[in-house]
């Protein structure tokens, strides 16, 4: 089923990914008309995400074999979160108002009702696709996607245990989870590229977002300077120093919580990764009130963005489009499910006149979690990345509740076989 990729050496894979990223940046900043026209319709961030997946689908390397995603999500992501939050305007984020939360919970509801509705739709013309009995029943496997799409990896694992999901259906559902979620992320990145046009058509008020973005840009312009080696060493020390601190705290805190309150495992708070993200973001926000904030003038957020783009590429390489051919029916179920989630977000967003930013980040905080929500948020502006993280952390908290409700509804909707 899984073939050995052409390249298994991660040093070579990293070289390919960084060259692909550089190619996108060089062409997207080119003055040549052909590139200007191309990037008018295709956001550069989307390409940074999509190109690595082509090499995966061609069998050049494998997202499953490579450890680059693990390294970038555990080391580069926390450092990136710290460096992107250094210049954060916390009162400005508070002034974004309740629409971000409304869209987040709308996304959650979309996942909860989308699963059972997708089963009902597919069972009308292909009941065997969503049937099955015992541990390998399709609805049981789908509960793990619900856990992942509302919370994250920890919630997904919790659902596997709670609903006693068989290993065979679980492995198929992981493929559906990764590919469908990544296709949807690509759609959100495209929407981020044309956000102003969409907001203008829907009459959404994005002034609070624009104001926050403008304040950060003004701070950057006011304090901008050519970075010295001294500056760059300080920036890397802050980024990786806090990453080390986050790992140290999370490494002790997560097992301690698991020991004294094992029941909390279902909410994701016994996950080491959860606490790494929380600590890194919290320390970053705390440093924004100190003199460390001045490192933004030397390009702290640019270094953080470079880390983020490597993470984007490593997420992209996890998507192998060829996997769709193995279980096409299950991917159809996944696409219907995510479409219901999207339709509900678009409907509520239009009703409350929410900017595309709230729709995209609210959705990705559910479906993608802490690793990719800041990517979508930073597609609007690097300073907005923390909004994605804060909502993703909320997703960890509600993920298990939502997935349990979704699982019960899917069991009811599943055809009797």
Write up what this structure looks like.
- Helices cover 73% and strands 0% of the residues.
- It is an all-alpha fold and 417 residues long.
- The radius of gyration is 21 Å and the shape is globular.
- The protein has helices at residues 10-28, 33-41, 44-57, 68-85, 90-94, 99-125, 138-150, 153-162, 167-193, 195-202, 207-223, 229-260, 272-287, 300-316, 328-351, 356-367, 373-380, 385-413.
Brief summary:
By secondary structure, the protein is mainly alpha-helical. The chain is 73% helix and 0% strand. It is globular.
List the helices and strands and how they pair.
Blueprint: H1 10-28, H2 33-41, H3 44-57, H4 68-85, H5 90-94, H6 99-125, H7 138-150, H8 153-162, H9 167-193, H10 195-202, H11 207-223, H12 229-260, H13 272-287, H14 300-316, H15 328-351, H16 356-367, H17 373-380, H18 385-413
